[in-house]
């Protein structure tokens, strides 16, 4: 029982972190048709910026704010000057965004050196509660709660605001949204920056979870996020949320019971979904 | 609206070739011509989806040849597509709302909640009444019949309060029973007045019934222009439509 609860929370927390990456990816792909391989770099930058802020101020809130600001600023620069020139060309997007991923990683080493850096859990979130013999690790619960809040906020943004209506419509039909007089470039920038901010948030949350940051830390999560976007359906935030939890949970349980198979299971899951429903669980693109 | 020597070349073939078209304000102008004559391409040029190889376009007295499609929309130009273009997974009402929202100039106050703009909802709803779709306002657009989707698209066009409307074959691909309803909607729009309308249509009864004047395109060229009656009597037009060859003698 104890172990099951533990794995459950572990899986949910990992799922939430994957979701923070995948939500941006799925919107960026759904709306702009951009294959973005640099998202893992933003994740790592969020983690470093957060750890740096934490060392500077001692405040975890400031560290989260610093990470999100770093993500938003880098995302804005990327979209305006690096991604925008390659809209419409998938091959160039892959090459350019992979290049950005490498550059972002190298820049981290330039600023903070090549070694891993410790990332402490803030005192009020460290330790655990013990309820009826079950140990609940506080920081994991914290990640799950933050993930839930982000999901709900995103859900509200997409379904209850004007921007949301435009984004949902843009995912379905870009040409038509322009024909209605909307400046799609501006919406692209907003969505890209939003995705970048969420990725950086994922990074800063993950740092104390893993205990240390290193420049390639975003890679594994970026791969999982891609699998999730495919399973959930390109452009669907709900699909990504569900698939993130699925992948997070299966990863946690597999790592415990069948450790050799944990990545393979995610791949199999993806292949299975693609065979049954090629557009993903909630795919809205044709 | 005016075009001057408007030309676009696709791989050596001029799909629209030196077209000079002048449409006075509040005029109902139809454009006819056989398939492949370049009618849709002409619309693409006017609405900005395509850039001309040569020539210019004037709208409300300004040269808009270099303007992007969204800017043209904001200047008051609205077009319907030959292929129906609605957002399939949004509700009928949401579709129209998007258009109301775009026109109302609160485009970039993006983060405000939808519910704070109830008048937009009401305006969208009254437009749905105009096109007789108010009963279906909460259904997803994809559940509508083809003709209904076309009517939805027209409601969206009206929401933009465009003063120039471009209709590309509004009855194409629509079942025979649904055609009168579309005709009815266009007639209502014409009767409301205050709009310049360009219509591409193959159904001659409809063209003759609605138009103030008719332009005939053939092989990308301007073949004739006149009142519906003049066009019906025009020999060049008859030979073009009857499959006769139109030799470029002029
Ligand atoms: N984007 C394009 N690229 C190349 N050729 C095109 C393009 N659009 C239209 N054409 C060609 O231009 C001609 C006119 O097409 P179109 O304007 O669609 O005719 P209509 O609407 O009068 O039936 C056709 O020969 C078509 O093949
Ligand atoms: Mg056509």
Automatic annotation (TrEMBL), chain A:
Keywords (alphabetical) are: Amino-acid transport, Cell membrane, Membrane, Transmembrane, Transmembrane helix, Transport
Family stated for the protein in its record: Belongs to the binding-protein-dependent transport system permease family. LivHM subfamily.
The UniProt entry, under PANTHER family, shows: ABC TRANSPORTER ATP-BINDING PROTEIN, BRANCHED-CHAIN AMINO ACID TRANSPORT SYSTEM PERMEASE PROTEIN LIVH
**InterPro entries from the UniProt entry:** ABC_transp_permease, BCAA_transport_permease
Q: Which lineage?
A: Bacteria, Bacillati, Bacillota, Bacilli, Bacillales
Keyword presence, Cytoplasm: no
Q: Which domain of life is it from?
A: Bacteria
Organism the protein comes from: Cohnella kolymensis
Q: How is it placed in the membrane, per its record?
A: Multi-pass membrane protein
UniProt-annotated location(s): Cell membrane
Transmembrane segments annotated in the record for this chain: 7-31, 51-78, 90-111, 131-158, 187-211, 264-284
Could you tell me what this protein is called? ABC transporter permease
Asked if the Swiss-Prot or TrEMBL record annotates the protein with the keyword Cell membrane, the reply is yes
């Amino acid at each position: 029982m104890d172990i099951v609860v533990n794995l459950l929370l572990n899986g949910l927390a990992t799922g939430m972190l994957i979701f923070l990456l995948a939500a941006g990816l799925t919107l960026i792909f759904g709306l702009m048709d951009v294959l973005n391989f640099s998202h893992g770099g933003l994740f790592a930058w969020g983690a470093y910026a957060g750890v740096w802020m934490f060392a500077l101020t001692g405040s975890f809130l400031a560290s989260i704010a610093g990470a999100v600001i770093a993500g938003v600023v880098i995302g804005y620069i990327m979209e305006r000057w690096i991604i925008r020139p390659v809209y419409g060309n998938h091959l160039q997007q892959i090459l350019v965004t992979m290049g950005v991923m490498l550059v972002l990683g190298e820049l981290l080493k330039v600023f903070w050196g090549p070694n891993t850096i410790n990332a402490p859990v803030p005192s009020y979130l460290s330790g655990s509660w013990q309820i009826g013999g079950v140990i609940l690790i506080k920081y994991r619960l914290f990640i799950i709660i933050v993930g839930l809040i982000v999901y709900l906020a995103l859900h509200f943004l997409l379904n209850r605001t004007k921007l949301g209506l435009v984004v949902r419509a843009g995912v379905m039909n870009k040409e038509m949204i322009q024909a209605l007089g909307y400046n799609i470039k501006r919406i692209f920038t907003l969505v890209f920056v939003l995705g970048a901010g969420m990725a950086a948030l994922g990074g800063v949350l993950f740092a104390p979870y893993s205990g240390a940051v290193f420049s390639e830390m975003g890679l594994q999560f970026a791969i999982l996020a891609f699998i999730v976007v495919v399973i959930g359906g390109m452009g669907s935030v709900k699909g990504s949320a569900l698939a993130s939890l699925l992948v997070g949970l299966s990863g946690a349980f597999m790592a415990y019971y069948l450790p050799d198979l944990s990545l393979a299971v995610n791949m199999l899951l993806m292949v299975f979904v693609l065979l049954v429903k090629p557009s993903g669980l909630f795919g809205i693109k044709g | 609206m005016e075009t001057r020597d408007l030309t676009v070349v696709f791989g050596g073939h001029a799909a629209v070739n030196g077209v000079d078209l002048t449409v006075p304000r509040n005029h109902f102008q139809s454009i006819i011509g056989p398939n492949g004559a370049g009618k849709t391409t002409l619309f693409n040029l006017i609405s900005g989806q395509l850039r001309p190889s040569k020539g210019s376009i004037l709208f409300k007295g300004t040269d808009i040849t270099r303007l992007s499609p969204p800017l043209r929309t904001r200047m008051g130009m609205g077009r319907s597509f030959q292929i129906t273009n609605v957002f399939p997974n949004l509700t009928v009402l949401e579709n129209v709302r998007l258009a109301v929202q775009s026109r109302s100039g609160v485009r970039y106050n993006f983060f405000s909640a939808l519910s704070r703009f109830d008048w937009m909802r009401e305006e969208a709803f009254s437009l749905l009444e105009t096109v007789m779709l108010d009963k279906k306002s909460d259904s997803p657009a994809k559940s509508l019949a083809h003709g209904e989707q076309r009517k939805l698209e027209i409601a969206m066009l009206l929401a933009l309060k465009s003063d120039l409307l471009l209709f590309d074959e509004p009855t194409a691909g629509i079942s025979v029973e649904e055609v009168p309803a579309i005709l009815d909607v266009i007639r209502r729009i014409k009767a409301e007045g205050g709009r310049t309308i360009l219509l591409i249509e193959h159904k001659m009864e409809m063209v003759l019934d609605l138009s103030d004047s008719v332009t005939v395109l053939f092989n990308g060229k301007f073949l004739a222009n006149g009142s519906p009656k003049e066009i019906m009597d025009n020999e060049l037009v008859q030979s073009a439509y009857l499959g006769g060859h139109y030799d470029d003698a002029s």
